[in-house]
Design a protein that fits this description.
The chain is 40% helix and 23% strand. It is an alpha/beta fold. The protein has two domains: 3-232, Rossmann fold (3-Layer(aba) Sandwich); 249-470, P-loop containing nucleotide triphosphate hydrolases (Rossmann fold). The strands form six sheets. Strands 5-4-6-7-3-10-11-12-13 form a nine-stranded mixed beta sheet, sandwiched between helices. Strands 18-17-19-20-16-21-22-23-24 form a nine-stranded mixed beta sheet, with helices on both faces. It is rod-shaped, with a radius of gyration of 47 Å. The N and C termini lie far apart (149 Å).
Length: 571
Amino acid sequence: MTVSSKASTGIAGLDDITGGGLPQGRTTLLVGGSGSGKTILALQFLVHGAKDHDEPGIFVAFEERPARIVSNAETFGWNLADLQNEKLYFMDAQPMPDLVQSGTFDLSGMLAALGARIEEMGAKRIVFDALDIVLALLPDAAAQRREIYRLHAWLLSNDLTGIVTLKADSDEHGAMRQPYGFIQFMVDCAIILNHSVVLGVSQRNLRVQKYRGSSFDENEAPFLIGRSGFEVAVTRTIGRSDVQVTNERVASGVERLDTMLGGGYYRGASVLITGFPGTAKTTLSGAFAEAACARGERTMFVSFDSDSNEVIRNLGSVGIELNRFVENGTLHMVSARTITGSAETYLVRIKTLAREHRARCLVVDPVSTLSKSGNELTAHSVAERLIDWTKAEGITLVCTSLLDEMSSQSEAGSPLQISTLADTWIHLNYLVQAGERNRGMSIIKSRGTAHSNQVRELILSDAGITVTDTYTAGGEVLMGTMRWEKESAERHATEVAAVAAKLRNVRVEAEEAELEARVKSLQLELAAKMTEKAVLAKSAEVHHQELLLGRNRMRELRGSDVGPEELSVTR
């Protein structure tokens, strides 16, 4: 069976499960307990055909008056009044309350009347809602089987895509008890709807039991009845071609955290921030929201723990001002306390609000609250689909997960166990030293990028968020007062060492000056001695010459001969 031979239901998740919709021109059986959503699914199928595929439809009501069905459906915004009669016809086939049955009856008269209406409208789709009401009036199983086969043959002969709904109850093990089980062997498609309460929370799911001539998803799929009708949640494959992968980075709102991540978060990535209560998970996610809004990107902040106004006030105490972005419409704050129901309800509501806001960035604080809305398996599936959906939409997701204070400092304390799905995992913890508790931050993983492996101290003040450098002493990372004391002691020791070095330098310079002075004094004394020596030598020479001249003069006066030495003097 090809997609073209299938009739779209208009319910995206159900069409995904069935590979395009219900078998066209054939019969589908909807089985479920009271309040499981059979009537809504069937009516939505007719409305979608009438509005979007120009396929008029007929709704045969055996249990409720058509007026009540139309009135109830108005809450989904389908505008049935515009479709009635020409595109959508309701037949009231409800047995009278005071009916007294005498003899046998069959469906041939009703089917004949429907045949005339089909001719008039050109109907292509039909629903028989709560057929079990009529079958219960038949005297025995043989008569019931006969009328069901009559109905099935009539549907095939008129080439109608039909839905038949039946009520069925569940036993103590949750298995569906179907009083008219032979119908399943006759129809081409059978869908079972379940509605149960787990830990006080409503849980709904459906399963396609059979689908002749077509492949389908055999697993249970959760659904809920939302503002627009029947909504089926189906996990999308991350590797689909419509998922855009980019190398673009977006700021985390904390500059030094961006440095630790090698440039920030990837656009469209999922970021998980885990930690105990009070470790600044909301603060980090608030910093991301502020940075996103400052870039002009529409952002939605979903808070499970506090009212939106409280979140804005509390973040303002650490320099994160979100109020201005709320006022200009860039930021949409959602208090999830106003949403009640299962984890599936939360997911659908978050997706709807994010689409309405056209959000490019989404914060869910904390996503671990989903585990309180039903069983943990359902919550884990919802968290997976939240991450998957944001990737498909290109939305950058930052979600926090609260750890149990009694657990170890790992995500083992988180009931969702979604750390394997997140692209970036930041863990916040406490480090108790010297009687005080300090916040530590580390990056457990960040896919596709190199990142710091250091544990950094996270300091919150009215000036904002500060991520300090790693400080170790004796192989131990110090934070808070111990770090301040150690740094103060080191600064004091450095100052003392600097003063001592300066004193030593002055002393050496003085000794150097003294030595230079002594050298200069000795040089002057040496020069004086050399001068004195030269003067003495000159004086001796002069005295010797004068002595010779005196001797020669005396000889001349006496008239004596002049000797060789005397001649040299006279010359």
